[in-house]
Amino acid sequence: MKKVIVTGSSRGIGLAIALAFGRAGFQVFATMRNPAKAIELSEIVSAESLPVTLHKMDVNSDISVKSFMDEIIIQNGSIDILVNNAGIGLTGSIEEMPISDFRSVFETNLFGAVRCIQAVTPSMRAQKSGCIINITSVSGRLTSSPLGCYSASKFALEAISEALAQELKPFNIRVGVIEPGIIDTDMAHEIEGASSSLYPTSKRMSDLFFASLKTPTSASLVAEKVLEFAAGDSWTLRHPVGPDALPFIQWRMSMTDEEWIDRQSVSDEEWYDAVERDFGMDARR
């Protein structure tokens, strides 16, 4: 039975990933800061008798990550798959967002993933096999206010993943980047409601999320892609997930940097018209 560590498993995409692996017969170590709050996951695991155990691990802590990873590897041998899912999505314009929030986002979204990668890589390298999957976002390929900080952390994780894939391929360790679009999670609903700002772009993004979530995309879709990559033999690095993921990326790639900046800087009316024209989505609330 292959062994999987999934970070940030208490809710949303992480919960769906842990369940997908468990239902597929993997031994899953589902980690989170506070297992007592993972009531839904615990109940499903118990009801379905899944090979999933809940563990406390804070990806923001060197000590927490090292102690947990060392214990799991000593007790169970090398981990076959690591899924770095833990993340936070604080929003705000560059001017208005406190530096402490910038640090918090990077601490979890980037450094948390790197801590876990460094903890499992030696044993994977020794056995010359393994799989590391980093959950980034479409926002790791393009950015719009008020997601500047969040996007920066995901851009950074994409860069780390690309370098990591080069380093680990000679050791037969696959690296995959999963890039969800707008998924029906608590984080997405928090962005949907985050429109208080000096900058009108914040309300626009909130409205875009609101419109998208009218026809929600389940976190299980992301989990299916993660499981597909982990169980397969693909060396493809990037995997957009969700009906809007690739269209968003292609939208950005169709423009120069200057055209993209201009598109995001137009009047409200022009911006909403462009979204409706390009995506068939009326984002006006």
From TrEMBL:
Cross-referenced Pfam families: adh_short (PF00106)
InterPro entries per UniProt: NAD(P)-bd_dom_sf, Sc_DH/Rdtase_CS, SDR_fam, SDR_oxidoreductase
Record's keyword terms, sorted: Oxidoreductase
Family from the record: Belongs to the short-chain dehydrogenases/reductases (SDR) family.
**Name recorded for this polypeptide:** Oxidoreductase
Organism of origin is: Algoriphagus jejuensis
